[in-house]
Each structure stands twice: as C-alpha cells, then as structure tokens.
C-alpha cells in the first residue's frame, strides 16, 4: 500500500492532469470479450449476442463469475443488470470493485435473492484498508428481475456515490481528516459473481435455495467506464499523449470532482427515507462502544 505522502502525490497528479484536460479512459460495452474475463464456473458464465450480453448461471454444483481486464484508480462505472427472477432465495449476485491483499479496498453492490413476490435486498458496503462493517441495505422501487437497470459507482478522491438508474442511494465521503481511511491508494478491478449463500442471504439463512428452480441466471449489458486505468504502476490520467492507448478522446472529466447537487441530495433523501432498511450508523446495539467515527463526524449518507 502507498504511504500517505505517496498517495497524496498520486491524487495531485491526477487532479493536475484533469485540470489540463487530459483524456480519460472511456470504455463502452460493445464487447464483453474486450473488457472482461470469465474467471470461474466451468462454462456457466457466457458472453452472447456479439459480445453485447454476459450471463452468469448458478446450479447445485457451482456458481460463476467474471472480472475486468483493467484495474481502475477512480472512475465512474456503470453496468446494467437483470437479476435472477422468480424464487431467488439463497442466491447472491455480487457486483463490486476490489483490490487485493490483506488491507484491500472494496466498493460493493450485493443483491440478496428472496422468495417469489418478496423484494430483493440491495446490500452495499465500503472497505478501506481491509476494514468494512459499513453496510447499508435497501429495497428497490421496481422489480429488478423484469428488465435491465443501471447500477453505478462514482469513485473520486472526495466521495463514493452508489446510484441506481441515475438516482443516488448512498454517499460515502472522504473523512481522512477525521482519521477514517478512504479508498484512494489501491487500484481496483471490477468483479461479479452469482453464488449460493443460503446460510445467510435470505432471512438470515432461514430460507434455503430451492434447487428445483435451477439454473439461476443473472444478465449484464451496457458496461461503461469513464475512469483512470491503472497499468504498470501508472494511471492513464497522467498521460498527456493524445495517442496513448488508454485515451479515448472523451474529455467528460466532471466525475473526478463531482458531488451531489441539491436535486440529487433530495433524491438521496427520498430513497433513504422510503427504501433504506438497514444503516450501520444507526445500529447502536452493534457498536456498544460508540458508532464508527464517520457516523459521528457527519451524517454518512
């Protein structure tokens, strides 16, 4: 892991580059073969429809998964998902950014399946330097199995914003000034998997996976990353060469300093008032010695 001085230098370089108008990596979801590798599942993960669609499958023998070919250090990541329909109890569809090592960083979407007619639970978490325990959970205001919906992670040096179809549901702010570690030093890949977690996923493990409904399938399309690609120890955002392979000619760099405007703040409040079902910052029983620092320092949306 980088030291605080070296990480500050990295962030400063990125900011200077963006202020100078440096092109950032922009990846469109025209070809899943180009952007991702199917990593496990023995054929249960598939790329279809001229590489515009990716599916993951789960049966009693195995689940499946994939990961991005690129590593990113800050970015705006979008993916459209259609979740396992019907009785999905016991299944988990995970879609997240993560680094490696004992002090890894991670930004999580996890979709916890449920019995037919009951809502999915969208589980979010943020790990920094190997420490998580920052769960927030939501119901969705639509059926995520009926059609594709866009799930987005905005990650810049100031904040992480989770969004669904452009509506923010959670903001995790950089509070390093309060002693709270923030993911900013370690490049992360995108990972996704569909797996059996019936020991905990649905009603704390009370509802088990109904294997007569297998195979379970989740689908992905329209991946887009407007992001800083990390390769061989350097970021694509540091290069001023217009011919750099990491440059796409897309100069929409607003995400690097983006924050929630007043309209987005109101939408965030609407989601959290009506659809949030768990917030670690309100769980005094879980933290009898006091809530985590970021909860006391400011309202961690």
Low-confidence stretches: 1-6, 16-24, 239-250
Helix content: 10-25%
| Structural class label | mainly beta
**What average pLDDT do the residues reach?**
88
- Computed over alpha carbons, the radius of gyration is 19 Å
SS strand fraction: 35-45%
Would you give an account of this structure?
The N terminus is likely disordered. This protein is mainly β and 301 residues long. Helices cover 13% and strands 37% of the residues. The protein has four helices and 17 strands. Strand 11 and strand 12 form a beta hairpin. Strands 1, 3, 4, 6, 11, 12, 13, 15 and 16 form a nine-stranded antiparallel β-sheet that branches. It has an eight-stranded antiparallel β-sheet with strand order 2-5-14-7-8-9-10-17. It is globular, with a radius of gyration of 19 Å.
């Amino acid at each position: 892991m980088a030291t605080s001085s070296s990480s500050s230098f990295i962030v400063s370089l990125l900011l200077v580059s963006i202020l100078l108008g440096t092109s950032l990596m922009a990846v469109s979801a025209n070809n899943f073969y180009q952007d991702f590798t199917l990593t496990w599942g023995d054929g249960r993960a598939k790329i279809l429809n001229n590489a515009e669609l990716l599916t993951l499958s789960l049966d009693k023998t195995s689940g499946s998964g994939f990961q991005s070919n690129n590593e990113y250090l800050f970015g705006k990541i979008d993916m459209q998902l259609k979740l396992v329909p019907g009785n999905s109890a016991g299944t988990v569809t995970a879609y997240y950014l993560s680094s490696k090592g004992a002090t890894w960083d991670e930004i999580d979407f996890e979709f916890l399946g449920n019995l037919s007619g009951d809502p999915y639970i969208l589980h979010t978490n943020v790990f920094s330097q190997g420490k998580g325990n920052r769960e927030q959970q939501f119901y969705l205001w639509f059926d995520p199995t009926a059609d594709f919906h866009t799930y987005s992670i905005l990650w810049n040096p100031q904040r992480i914003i989770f969004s669904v179809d452009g509506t923010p549901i959670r903001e995790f702010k950089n509070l390093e000034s309060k002693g709270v570690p923030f993911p900013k030093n370690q490049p992360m890949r995108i990972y996704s998997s569909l797996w059996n977690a019936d020991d905990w996923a649905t009603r704390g493990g009370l509802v088990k996976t109904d294997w007569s409904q297998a195979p379970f399938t989740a689908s992905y399309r329209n991946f887009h990353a407007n992001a800083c690609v990390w390769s061989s120890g350097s970021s694509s955002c540091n290069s001023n060469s217009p011919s750099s392979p990491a440059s796409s000619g897309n100069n929409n760099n607003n995400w690097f300093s983006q924050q929630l405007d007043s309209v987005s703040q109101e939408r965030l409040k609407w989601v959290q008032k009506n659809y949030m079902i768990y917030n670690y910052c309100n769980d005094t029983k879980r933290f009898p010695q006091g809530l985590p620092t970021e909860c006391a320092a400011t309202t961690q949306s």
